[in-house]
Amino acid sequence: MRTVLHAHGVLDRNPAGHLRVGSPAYTIPRPAADLAPIRQALATPDPVRAAVTALLVFHALRAGEVRHLTLDQALGAQTGPPRMPGRTVLLAEPVRVPVAAYLAHRSHRWPGTANPHLFITRRSALSTRPVSRAWLYRQYPDSAHVLRSDRIVDEVQAAGGDALLICELFGLGVKAATRYTAAGPAAPPTTPREPVRGRGSPALSISKPARVWPSSASHAP
After folding, report:
1. CA torsion 4→5→6→9, rounded to 10°?
2. pTM beyond cutoff 0.90
3. What is the dihedral of CA 184, 188, 190, 193, to 10 degrees?
4. At a CB cut-off of 8 Å and minimum separation 6, what does 186 contact?
C-alpha cells in the first residue's frame, strides 16, 4: 500500500518507520512428538536409512555434517574418534551396527568409486561430490532439526542442565546451549515417555571424562 501511495506522491516517507516491533521470539526446543517413525527407521532393513537415522538420532549431527561425512571418518571411528566441526565423535555401539551394515552395502555396490564421502548414490558414485540435500532428506523420518533438538533436550534432562557438557557434546555455542538448558529441565515431558535412546553406550569422547550416553537404539520397535 505504501509503495502505491508513494508512487502517486501521497506519501513521502514511511509513517511506520519509527516503530519498533522487538526481536522475533525463539521457539522453545521440545522433544519429538512421535517416536514411532524414528524406531521404524532405525529398525528398517534399508542400510542407508538406518545408518543416516542412527547418526542423526544418537549423535545429533546436522544434515550438512552427515552429507560431508567422509569414508575415512567412518572407518576411523571403528578404532578412534572422528573429528567433526567443534567436537570429536565416538560412535555409540548402536550406531556402529547400522554404519557397518551400510559400509558393507556401499563396498558391494560401488567397489571402485573414488568418492570420498560416506554416503553416496548412483550418481555421486561417479564423482567426488557429496549427496544432494534432497536425497539425504528422503532418508530419515523427520526434520533433521527436530531430531537434533530431541536428542539435545534428552541429554539436557539427563545431565541436569549442564551447559558446558552440552556445548562439548554437540558443538554448540554458549548462547545456543542456554536455549536448551533453560527449556530442558524446566519442561519435562507431560506424560511418561518410553526412551528411544536407552542408557548405556558411550557416544562422544571429548576432553571431559566419558559419561553414559543415551543409547537410543534400544529404539526397538
Report:
1. 130
2. no
3. 100
4. none
